[in-house]
Structures are given as C-alpha cells and as structure tokens.
C-alpha cells in the first residue's frame, strides 16, 4: 500500500496546486477585467449637475446595484431614453429604432405611463425594455426615504403592474441624483439603479432645438465598449434626438458596435418577480423572472 500512497498523494497535490493556480488566475483575470466605472462625458458647469465623482463613487460602492456602464469590454452600446412616454416624440423614435432593428431601454415616468398607457404598451410591444424613472421627476435627496419609495418608485411600479402587467427591475434616478440610503433601499427591493457613462446633453434647450449634430458628436466622441448613453424622448421637443439617433445607429454599426438593452448589458431580468407576500428582508432577494 505504501507504494500506492505517493502515487495517490501526487495527483492530489498537483490537483491542489492546479486549483490554487486556478484561483490565482481567476484573481488575476478579475483584476485584469475589473474596470473602474467612469463617466466619459465631462462635467457641465452651471447646470446643477450631480458631481461625476458622486455617481462614480456610488457605482464603485454598490457594484451589482448601481451601474454607469456595463461590466466588461464587449463592443456593445445601450441607448437609453428618459422622461416618456410622449405622444410627440416616442412614436417617431420607435419608427427610427424599428427601421434599424435596434432595441433600446426606455426609463418612463409613472405620471406619463398613467396618462399614455397605450404608448407605453407600444414601446414594450416593439421589443424595447422599460424601466422606472420615478413618478414625477423629483430631486430625490429632498425627499424622505419613505416619500421617495412610496410616492415615486413604488407608485410607479404599481402603475407599470396595472398598465403593463409587470414591474421593472431597472430604475433611473432623475438627474442621476440619489442618496446612498435610497440606493440601499432599492437594492433591498431587488431593483437596479442605472445611470450613464455618456450624457448626450440632448436635454439642453439649444440642442433640443437644433443640436442634432452635437448630440451625434458627443456619442461618436465618447462612445466606448459597454457604454450607457443618456438621451430623452420626453421633457420637450426631441426631433433633434431622433435625427441624431437615425444617423448614429449606422455609424456605430460601422464601427463594429451592436446594440443591447440594459438588462442584457448587466445580466438581469427586465421584470421583477411579482411581489409575493413576504417580509421585506426576503423580498430583497426576489429573483427577477423572464
Ligand atoms: Zn429624466
């Protein structure tokens, strides 16, 4: 038996070494692939913007909850459109996206889904992904957590449930502004917070009126693998955004980019599991379905 002992030990030892080596490799690989989440578009003075450092810090503090870009380096880009549904802007935008065969993510306001449920259903029917963008677009830091949750997020989740039959997994904070304890509150509800890495500033009135080339320019200058691009289909006339999107899709495809929705970019289901009658602590781990 003594003869066999070293024989058996040897493979075990080398298996252990292999395993340790593997762990080392994985650690090295994750170091190599872990990227610092970063907003690429520079800070815009004079518009009471959330400091980029704050958004980047929250992305680093709450990995797997708060996202400003995808986790990897794939040549994909996620277009996002906020503040709809809007009867003037959303239909022409849907037409352009359909023409190019591209799916995007729409962060809609509860107040507008309530008012234009058919339009929200049309966005969903076209294959796009819908997220919650609050009920009334408040500055969240001015609200108590209870008011933030009940009057803005949960209220909108309930409107989605009523009008569209599901509750979104994804939440975009208006202005990109959200406190740490509000991020933690959403985390405990199984909701992901989605900001952006590229802000087209299509919300600036000069661009909303005649800045299609500027909107296009921002995206082509700052696009990067797994970018999340902020645009709008509500909050004012968005003809320029729609025109820019029409040209951008072809341009980015030429550069080798494909288009993804946010759920696919970060690897979550777009719809939350229906709220079972569970205590809050358990609901936190509610697994999204579909
Ligand atoms: Zn907004």
Automatic annotation (TrEMBL):
Biological process according to GO: carbohydrate metabolic process
CDD domains: CE4_NodB_like_6s_7s (cd10917)
Domain NodB homology: 75-260
A Pfam match: Polysacc_deac_1
Superkingdom of the organism of origin: Bacteria
Matches recorded under InterPro entries: Glyco_hydro/deAcase_b/a-brl, NODB_dom, Polysacc_deacetylase_ArnD
MF-aspect GO terms: hydrolase activity, acting on carbon-nitrogen (but not peptide) bonds
Gene3D superfamilies xref list: Glycoside hydrolase/deacetylase
PROSITE patterns: NODB (PS51677)
PANTHER family linked to this entry: GLYCOSYL TRANSFERASE-RELATED (PTHR10587)
UniProt-recorded name of the protein: Polysaccharide deacetylase family protein
Organism, scientific name: Chitiniphilus eburneus
């Amino acid at each position: 038996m003594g003869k066999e002992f070293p024989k058996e030990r040897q493979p075990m030892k080398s298996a252990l070494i292999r395993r340790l080596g593997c762990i080392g490799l994985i650690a090295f690989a994750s170091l190599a692939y872990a990227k610092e989440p970063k907003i690429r578009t520079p800070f815009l003075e004079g518009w009471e913007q959330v400091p980029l450092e704050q958004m980047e810090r929250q992305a680093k503090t709450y990995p797997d909850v708060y996202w400003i870009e995808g986790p990897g380096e794939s040549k994909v880009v996620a277009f996002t459109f906020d503040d709809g549904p809007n009867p003037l802007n959303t239909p022409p935008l849907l037409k352009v996206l359909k023409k190019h065969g591209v799916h995007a993510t729409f962060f809609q306001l509860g107040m507008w889904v309530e008012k234009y449920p058919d339009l929200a259903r049309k966005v969903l029917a076209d294959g796009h992904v819908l997220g919650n963008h609050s009920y009334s677009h408040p500055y969240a830091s001015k609200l108590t957590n209870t008011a933030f949750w009940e009057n803005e997020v949960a209220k909108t989740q309930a409107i989605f449930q009523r009008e569209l039959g599901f509750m979104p997994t994804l939440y975009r904070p208006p202005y990109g502004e959200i406190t740490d304890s509000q991020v933690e509150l959403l985390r405990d509800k199984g909701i992901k917070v989605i900001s952006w890495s590229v802000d087209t500033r299509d919300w600036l009135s000069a661009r909303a009126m005649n800045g299609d080339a500027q909107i296009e320019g921002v995206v082509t200058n700052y696009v990067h693998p797994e970018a999340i691009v902020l645009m709008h289909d509500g909050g004012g006339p968005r003809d320029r955004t729609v025109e820019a999107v029409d040209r951008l899709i072809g341009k980015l495809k030429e550069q080798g980019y494909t288009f993804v929705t946010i759920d696919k970019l970060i690897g979550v289901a777009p719809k939350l599991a229906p709220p079972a009658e569970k205590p809050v602590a358990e609901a936190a781990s509610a697994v999204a379905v579909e």
